[in-house]
């Protein structure tokens, strides 16, 4: 499902998705005025959301979606890299972000990544998330019973590494990485990589 106010870009996004073998376009909107109704009725797996839209902004739309749905992946579109708007969108519940200038080359890859639980997010933005949350009080020592390997993988996630990069760095398979991350989510009681990174940073788990 697409929410983008630029007509040409919206048509381009729709075309990329329509001609993909693996994706089905459920809706295409020029604003987010009826985002709650659209997501409830369409039940998409992924929402592509422009950050800067008139009326209801993309950030406000993400917050609205998260009031009733924590499973849908929300991929933010932005013109600028690592700005405050992107940080605010991630903290509001976005699953990742994509620069508009890379849409033609990276959109399908980014959608695939969020569907697998990964977060299209630069190391710079990962650092921004961590820096802004490190001012919170630390958690009790190993409150969540994370193993050394789980802490190691959580740390690599926080640095913006993909599953593939983590697997290569630790000389383990991607499936093993996914298994560890699933256990990390269960222990931290989170549902996404962004939530895990935020919790790790905010409670000084690393």
Going by CATH, the homologous superfamily of the largest domain would be Response regulator
The proportion of residues forming helix, as a percent range, comes to 40-55%
The main β sheet shows up as:
5 strands, parallel
What's the number of extended β-strand segments? 5
The structural domain count equals 2
**Roughly what fraction of the amino acids lie in strands?**
5-15%
Q: Structural class of the helix and strand makeup?
A: alpha/beta
Instruction: Provide the low-confidence segments as ranges.
Output: none
Can you identify the CATH class of the largest domain? Answer: Alpha Beta
| Shape verdict | globular
Q: Which oligomeric state applies? A: single chain
User: What is the chain-wise order of helices and strands?
Assistant: EHEHEHEHEHHHHHH
As laid out across the biggest beta sheet, the strand order is 2-1-3-4-5
Q: How big is the Rg?
A: 17 Å
Query: The CATH topology of the largest domain, please?
Result: Rossmann fold
Per DSSP, the total helix count is 10
* Through-space gap between termini: 36 Å
> Architecture of the largest domain in CATH?
3-Layer(aba) Sandwich
The pLDDT mean sits at 85
Please, could you describe this protein's structure?
By secondary structure, the protein is of the alpha/beta class. The protein has two domains: 117 residues, Rossmann fold (3-Layer(aba) Sandwich); 74 residues, Arc Repressor Mutant, subunit A. It contains ten helices and five strands; from the N terminus they run E-H-E-H-E-H-E-H-E-H-H-H-H-H-H. A five-stranded parallel sheet has the order 2-1-3-4-5, sandwiched between helices. Helix 3 packs parallel to helix 4, helix 6 packs across helix 10 and helix 7 crosses helix 10. The N and C termini lie far apart (36 Å).
């Amino acid at each position: 499902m697409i929410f983008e106010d630029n007509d040409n870009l919206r048509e381009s996004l729709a075309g990329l998705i329509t001609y993909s073998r693996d994706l089905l376009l459920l809706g295409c909107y020029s604003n987010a005025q009826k985002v709650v109704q659209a997501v409830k009725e369409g039940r998409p797996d992924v929402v592509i959301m422009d950050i800067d839209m008139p009326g209801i902004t993309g950030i406000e739309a993400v917050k609205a979606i998260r009031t009733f749905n924590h499973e849908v992946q929300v991929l933010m579109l932005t013109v600028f890299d690592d700005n405050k708007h992107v940080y605010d969108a991630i903290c509001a519940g976005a699953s990742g972000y994509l620069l508009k200038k890379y849409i033609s080359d990276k959109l399908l890859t980014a959608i695939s990544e969020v569907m697998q639980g990964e977060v299209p997010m630069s190391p710079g933005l990962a650092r921004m998330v961590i820096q802004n949350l490190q001012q919170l009080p630390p958690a009790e020592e190993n409150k969540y019973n994370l193993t050394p390997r789980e802490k190691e993988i959580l740390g690599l996630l926080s640095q913006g590494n993909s599953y593939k990069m983590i697997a290569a760095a630790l000389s383990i398979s991607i499936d093993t990485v996914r298994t560890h991350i699933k256990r990390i989510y269960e222990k931290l009681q989170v549902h996404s990589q962004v939530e895990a990174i935020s919790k790790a940073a905010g409670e000084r788990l690393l």
